[in-house]
Every structure is written in structure tokens, then in C-alpha cells.
Amino acid sequence: MGYHLEHKVRLNTEPTYGGLYRWAINEVDEQGRVVSLDLIPWNMSLYFTAISCVVVDGVDLGYENTNRKSASEKSIYGRSNRIIRVRLRRGHPLDEGDSHKTVTYSMLGTQREIRDFQLFIHPTNVPDEQMQCWTFGLPMFTDETQFRRKIKTEDCIEFHLRVKPDDFSRYAADISNGLVDELILRIKGVPGFYAGWTPDIYTREIKVLTAHDFHDLDPKPDIDIKLPRLGESHEATLTLNRSIEFEKADLSLDQDGHQVAASAVSETAGLPVTDPHAQMVQALRPLKHALWGIAALLVSILAILWSRH
User: Fold this and answer.
1) Which domain holds residue 110?
2) In terms of domains, do 150 and 259 share one?
3) How many Cβ atoms sit within 10 Å of the Cβ of residue 119?
4) Predicted confidence (pLDDT) per residue in 186-197, tens digit
5) What is the pLDDT of residue 266?
6) How far apart are CA 305 and CA 286, in angstroms?
7) pTM score, whole prediction
8) How many CB atoms lie within 10 A of CB 133?
9) In-domain check, residue 246
């Protein structure tokens, strides 16, 4: 199996902003030249949005591993296999088009952008088991099977979220019944996520250090520093949204310029008027014409009296 890493990763104990952090890691090329910023752990929030989803509900059956027992004496185990598998894209829906909040991800030692993000939601084994979120990742690798067939796997990041059984059942039911229009994952404090120092709460690039031995510092440092690697996240928030748009009334203007429901503008069409406001407008219309007549008469009288003077 060959992993596609282009650069080495080294520890830097004399970073540019030494007053802010004691160490950083750098990517270096084959000639030993630094090709990255000073990278330090990134602990702020990052967002991912669902693209598609699969709800898996199955069961695993088999014999317990007791080689000395006969088939009739072996006990059969059975366990449910329930998973919600979600394909993700980076970013929050509200941040679409905002280049300042667009984050690119790549493995340390590569310049390839990671495009394969997935979320796996599992129910805990017992209701009282603690809920957790773990992050797993692999850089691109090529493997040759015993039939000399090469298999190439792209860079990938997986989030595994364990939730209480009741919550899992509700999520699965809502998704299966079409009651979820939007699924958003927020994670914070993911070990193994690195970025260049910034005073802002946003970053444009995340570099990923996996938990595997092949993804190690070269050369190994003389000092004992335990680098944060992919593992359990400090915070995770899963949000399932249902969006409903209520139909708005079709408002129109009557001949007097008043805004009324479309059903009220039915005098010429001979349709019944059901809107209370429209009914009041129609009831006052004769009185309005009478008031105009009285006003005209008063103007005429005043004109006659003015002419006599």
C-alpha cells in the first residue's frame, strides 16, 4: 500500500510568532525548504452541510468464535446494524458565496484539496452511554490486490457521531419521512486540524494530521511533544432543519386604491364577497357618493353668495 504524500512534516520549535505559541509544524519539500505557514492547532468552529443521505437498518448474524465446539453447541450472535450515512460539503448554507468563510481542506504533506467528507451517525449501545464525535481521515493511497489489480482511494475525512438510541430513531424517521430539508454539522476543537495563526475566528485553509504512523514527523524531534492528531472532537452540534413556507394571500387593489384580498374584487365578476374589509368598503360606497354631492352643493352655494357681494 502506497500513500501519496508529496512533502515531509517537521516540528518547528522557533516559530515566527514565538511569543504566541511555543511550537508549530511546517511542510518541507525534498530540498528541505519550508513550503507552508507555521501551522498550529485550529480550535474554532467549522461547518459542513449535507448533500445526500442513506438510512441503513440491518442485522448481523453469526456464530461465536468457539473453535472447539461443534456446530450444534455454538451460540449464534445477532446485533443490529443501524447507521445514517451522510455525504457532506464544506461550509454553512448561510455562507455560500462568502469567500472569506470558504475553507479548503488538505492533508499535511499534500496540496490536494479534500473533497470526500462523510458523516456516520450511530446509536449508542445503551441509552446511558456517552455521546461522542470522532474524526477519521486518510490521504490518497494506492493498493494492489492479490490479483494485481490496483485500487486508488482519494483523500477523505469521516466524522462518526454516536447519539442516544431515541435520538437516532427520531433522526432516521424524520429523514425517511421527508421531514428534513437541511442537515448541518458544526464541529469545534478537532485534534489534528491545523491552520496558520490568525487573530480572526475564521481561516481559509485547514491542514489535517491523521492518527496513523505513516503520517509522522520527519525527522523525529528530539523533544517530547505529543502532536494533536485526528480523534475525538471537543464539541459537535448536529442540526436537522425542516423548512415550511406558508402561502401568502393574493392581495389586489380595488378601484379606490385600497388593498383587499382577491376575493373582494369580484363586483364586476358577480362573485360573492367574503372579505370583511371588502364588505365594509362596498357598504360605504353609496355614502361616499352622497358626501361628494353634498360637498358640490355647498361649493355652489358659497360661489353664489360670493358673487352677490
Assistant:
1) 2-65+74-241
2) no
3) 23
4) 999 999 999 999
5) 46
6) 29
7) 0.74
8) 22
9) no
